[in-house]
Structures are given as structure tokens and as C-alpha cells.
Amino acid sequence: MARLDGELAVLHGRRLPVLMRRAGRTVVLILALAGCQSTAPSTAPTTPGAPAQPSGPPVLGIDWGRAAFVERPANYEETVAPSYVGMHPILRIQGQAQMSDVAARPGGGFVAIGYAPPDWQPVAWTSPDAQTWTFHAIGTAAFTFPVSLAVGAGGGVVAVGRSGSAPLAWTTTDGSTWQAHDVAVLGAVAERMNAVASGPHGFVAGGSVGPELLDRHARFWTSPDGIDWRPVADDPVAFANAEVRAITGFQGGFVAVGSVGSVQDRTGAVAWVSADGISWSRVDDPAFAGGEAVSVAPGPSGGLIAVGYQVDRRVAVAWTSADGRHWTRAPDEPSREHSGGFAWMTDVVSIGDVAIAVGDVQGLQRGTAISWVSRDGLAWQQAVSAPVQEGAEFYAIAPNGAGALVVGAFGAPDSYVPEVWLTPAR
Questions:
Q1: 3-state secondary structure of 20
Q2: Which of 159, 110, 160, 153 is nearest to 133 (CA)?
Q3: Where are the beta strands (DSSP E) in 61-143?
């Protein structure tokens, strides 16, 4: 979801910074959401596209419960702009931060990364069991955003993102102590890493170069260890007028997806295919017209599934591909629309024979975190929202044994309080 806050146009798709709106808004303190547990009836998929109906025990990807505890940073402990409070009280929920991505740690447990206001410093969380999450400050540089995680074949955890106008990478062995690593660039214009994936020979990252609010040009980097990063030589044709938003390993190589057009005027989605992370072939499939692809993952029955949204955010969109070179857009269906408002997908993962996509639906100001399930990537069943999903946003999903977990926030668009949800609900 494109959101212009006066400082930075921020894409509400997966693994990009989401800055809080400040000017002239009254913040509603959503105390009811803190720690409440789902009491909604269990639901299960019925016919494709139809609303889920109550039918027995909690269902994977349909029923969600809140994690027991997510530690928050110490910020926004008082009212802001006190001289303005008399007529327009402005409050911030304490302990705000964005959890932008999450992954299972080698040997057990989980790690998540993100960034915390007011200076937008890099932060992380660790959990031994997906229920209790410990907060870690991992740097002091302002305007620094880790946005994507990958776990290497040897167990190393790598995060990528940006600091100011430069790309930046981080590595960790335990999720609590991180080392930052400068990333080489090809030019002097702002460059950013948006996504990272691991492969047989190391890591591949993707992103873009270009001013914050204007045109973008795709970029890729490779690294054997997450520490030493080398930029891929520019391709003026394959990388033109585009931005990489997500990467996945696939059939020994990589597939990336992204957006075409400037930040404020997206026109469609795009994909790239590479055998080694260095040479990339661009795919401008007609199925990508009018959509933005922000996540891609192997499908439950082979091939690939990519998700995102229509450029006007009125429809959540999914695509499938057998090889990354030819794509089919899922037919429009009521399950991926929201009457009178917006619907978008931010991430997707396959667990067993089911693909789970997560995102949001939104009417007026506040959204509802929502999920969809599919066995083929073409027909999607939307979950029924529970109280723990109201006023919240789902950002990234990861497997959790036979289930899954999602990181996100509640209180948007005025506050972003970090939260974790689990499916099936317990």
C-alpha cells in the first residue's frame, strides 16, 4: 500500500519501511487489542472464494491466536506535542516498532528483525518457542531499516536493508548480537536492499537505486557469507524502471519479483530469473499488468506463487508459475476484495499442501490483518477475522513446525506496536 507521510513515500508491501503518520491526526489508544485472545469460532475453507464458515477445530492459515508476549522498546512513554493537547490530544501507544521479517533459527527458535522510532534504529527479536519474544537493540544509526532475512546453508542468519541512502547488511549467530557490514554500490545515487535469499553458494540480495519518491532501477548483489557483498553489474535493459521486492531460491537458482514504474506511479509487476544470482533474465509477462508483486515462494505442489496487489490496492493479487518465466494471474474472486475498501497481500509461504498468504483488508482508516489459503495458488479462501486481528497488520509469515507464525503490528496508521500471531490458534 503506497503511503505518503510527508517525509517518505513508503510501500506497504513486504519488507519495506512503513513510517507513521504524524501531522494532524488523533491517535486512538487500542488497549483492547493488547493481550486479548481470540474467541471467534473456528473456521475452515469451504468453496473457493466463499467466506470461511465455522466447522470444528482451528485450521491452519484460517484461525489465528496472539503470541503470549512480545517485548517492546522503551519509546513514546508520554504525550507528544503537549501544547496541542488541549484541543487535539495526541497520544502514542508505548513501545512501538516494526517487525519487518521473521525466520526460523538453525537449531530451533526464531529471529525477527525490524526498526524502531522515533529515530528509526535497527532492532531484532528472538524467541525459543514462538510464544515469548525478547527485544534486542542492534544498532544506533538513525534512519536504518533491516527489512529482509535469510538463513544460509551453513546456518548463518543474514539481514539486509538500508541506512540512510546506502544499502547495509547484518549477520548474527544467535539473533541477539548482530554485526553490520557495508555494501558496495555502483553509483552515488541512493541504493537500497529490499530482499535476500540463500542458495548453494551463498546469498543473493535485490533492491533498487534511485531517489526516494521518483524513478527506480533494479539492483542485485551477491555474497558468499553475508559479510562481503559485491554488486551485480548493471543491465540497462533487464533492470530498467523496476525495483526488486522479493527473491526466492528455486531449482538451484533464483527467482525475483518486483514492481515496474516510479514509486508514485507503479504500472505493473515484473520477474527475473537467474541460475547464479549474477546473470538475470527479465520477465515482463502480460499477466503482471496492473499489479505489484511483493513476495514469491515455492508453491505447495511445485512451481512458484507470487502475491501482492493491484496498483490501486483494491484487490489482493496472486500469480503462479511453473518455471519463473511464464506466469498466470489468479482469476479475480470475492475472497481477495474488500467491499468499499482495499485488500492487499504482503507475504506467502507453503506449508505441506497449502499455501498461506497474509496481508490486510481496510475500509476507512484502520485495517484488519487477514490471511488466505490455497492449494493451487489460483483459488483463495479468505479467513474470517478474529478480535486479535482487528486494527492490526500482517507483514511476514514463516513456518512454525506444522503451523505458521506472522509478525506485524497493531494500532496503524497512527501507532505501530509489534505483535506476533500463530496459526492454527491454540
A1: coil
A2: 110
A3: 65-66, 69-70, 98-104, 110-116, 121-127, 132-137
Beta carbons within 8 Å of 401's beta carbon, 6+ residues apart: none
Specify the DSSP class assigned to residue 33: G
Please check whether residue 123 is in contact with residue 137, taking contact to mean a CB–CB distance below 8 angstroms: yes
Q: Label each residue of 378-408 as H, E or C.
A: CCCEECCCCHHHECEEEEEEEEECCEEEEEE
Four-residue CA torsion sign, 62, 394, 267, 163: negative
Query: How many Cβ atoms from other residues are within 10 Å of residue 60's Cβ?
Result: 18
* Half-sphere exposure for 424 (CA within 13 Å, toward CB): 12
The model's pLDDT over 51-78, given as tens digits with 9 standing for 90+, comes to: 445 557 999 999 999 999 999 999 876 5
Q: Which of 169, 154, 275 is nearest to 231 (CA)?
A: 169
* 154 touches 200 (CB < 8 A): no
Please report, to the nearest 10 degrees, the dihedral formed by the alpha carbons of residues 148, 151, 152, 153 taken in order: -150
Dig out the grid coordinates for 306 from the structure: 507470487
Can you tell me which residue has the cell 464458515? 53
SS3 state of residue 60: coil
Query: Does the pLDDT value for residue 235 go beyond 70?
Result: yes
- On the question of pLDDT at 205 being above 70, the answer is yes
Strands 65-66 and 69-70: unpaired
pLDDT, tens digit (0-9, with 9 covering 90-100), for 301-338: 999 999 999 999 999 999 999 999 999 999 999 999 99
CA atoms within 13 A on the CB side of 198: 15
Listed residue (39, 13, 57) closest to 263, CA to CA: 13
DSSP string, 170-196: EEESSSSSEEEEE---SSSS-EEEEEE
pTM: 0.85
Cα separation of the two ends of the chain? 31
